[in-house]
Design a protein that fits this description.
about 375 residues, mainly alpha, 10 strands, Glycosyltransferase, 15 helices
């Protein structure tokens, strides 16, 4: 059994450890809530190993908690105080739907897009078109919410501080990652409508997808990679691993741009495993004060993530860099086998984070699921 197969077995076990009768938990310790973005990314791994029912349950869970405006919750679980108590070993029994960022009253912006992306993958894998048809109006409402957080009517969505997965960084305005997810969600919704035989709706959302894609390429492309975010006309020219590599995977970047992005990931040492979030590192002034106070100012800056390594390997594979894609998998696999699990975050030394105030979550279903998905896409392992 080679190193990738060993790691695949560990990652599958880690992923399934967080299945419940309702859905997919983000982790098994301090992240033992139903986090929307974590579970939707994890769904790709679940579907790759044919755990179809758990993905459907997870989609149903979040759909039940959609509010009257079409917004899905950030997570379903502990209250903000419950999170604090969990670090003290005190568990909150009742789960509640949370629709705002724990650091503020701002609304997160990526959960609706990721639901639609995960739903499309589920329908294509299972052919369970009835699930979409039965919930069509509510599912379309999820996209309506996205379209209504476009503050200046240019089809790109805006957000406030801490509102995407990098919720320790003070990004605001038009953020690459969030708009790449939004753009792909429009394409996914178009695909779902065409499968359901609704050509008019499919053409409508495909048209919006093409317009958003065009806007992203006009506003964010620097000539070498996509910049990180734009706020009130000011551009923040960081190389963000998430938005750039997802743009490659989801065909928002054409082949020429995709090759530039891969070259940048090499030059900026994003290819080190697990992959870093950004180059150059965000300055301290952009990082939430409370995160810095507990010694995690580098959480989304210089610490590394397996899920980013997974999309890095998938991007290489898509570009025909099959040898490099497998090498990236092997490096991640070696870490998973060495530490016998898929952890949340890793130091530059490639060890799971273990500090005075914080220990990396184990397992993290987001990373476990995306590693499983990448292995299944790139290799022929069962």
């Amino acid at each position: 059994m080679d190193i990738i197969e060993q790691a695949l077995n560990i990652a599958k076990d880690n992923l399934r450890l967080c299945y419940t009768y309702e859905g997919i938990l983000a982790g098994h310790h301090h992240f033992n809530d139903y986090w929307a973005r974590d579970s939707f990314f994890a769904s790709f791994g679940c579907l790759a190993i044919k755990d179809y029912e758990i993905v459907k349950k997870n989609l149903e869970l979040h759909l039940r908690h959609m509010n009257k405006f079409g917004q899905l919750p950030l997570r379903i679980g502990k209250s903000a105080m419950g999170i604090v108590l969990s670090y003290l070993g005190i568990k909150q029994k009742k789960r509640v739907a949370v629709y705002h960022i724990d650091k503020s009253k701002n609304s997160p912006v990526d959960q609706n897009s990721l639901f639609l992306i995960a739903l499309c993958e589920y329908v294509k894998k299972t052919h369970d078109l009835d699930f979409f048809i039965q919930n069509k109006k509510r599912i379309e409402g999820i996209m309506w919410w996205n379209l209504h957080i476009d503050e200046d009517n240019d089809l790109l969505i805006e957000e406030n501080k801490f509102c995407n997965w990098e919720d320790s960084v003070k990004k605001k305005g038009k953020v690459l990652y969030s708009n790449v997810c939004h753009c792909h969600a429009l394409k996914c919704l178009s695909e779902l409508f065409i499968l359901a035989g609704n050509k008019k709706e499919s053409i409508h959302y495909l048209g919006l997808h093409k317009e958003v894609k065009k806007k992203i390429n006009e506003l964010f492309w620097t000539g070498e990679h996509y910049l990180d975010w734009i706020d009130k006309g000011k551009t923040y020219n960081y190389f963000s691993t998430d938005g750039n590599l997802l743009a490659v995977l989801w065909d928002i970047a054409d082949n020429v741009k995709a090759k530039h992005i891969e070259e940048c990931s090499h030059i900026f040492e994003i290819n080190e495993i697990p992959s870093a979030c950004v180059h150059p590192e965000y300055p301290k002034k952009l990082v939430a004060e409370e995160i810095r106070l507990i010694g995690l100012g580098d959480y989304h800056t210089s610490l590394s993530w397996i899920w980013l390594g997974a999309i890095n390997s998938l991007a290489k594979h898509k570009l025909g860099m099959h040898k490099e894609a497998k090498e990236t998998l092997e490096k991640m696999a070696a870490l998973i086998v060495e530490f016998n699990g898929v952890y949340e975050i890793y130091e530059k030394s490639a060890e799971p984070v273990k500090r005075f105030f914080y220990k990396a979550e184990f397992p993290l279903t987001w990373s476990a699921g995306m590693f499983v998905y990448a292995v299944k896409e790139i290799t022929r392992l069962n």
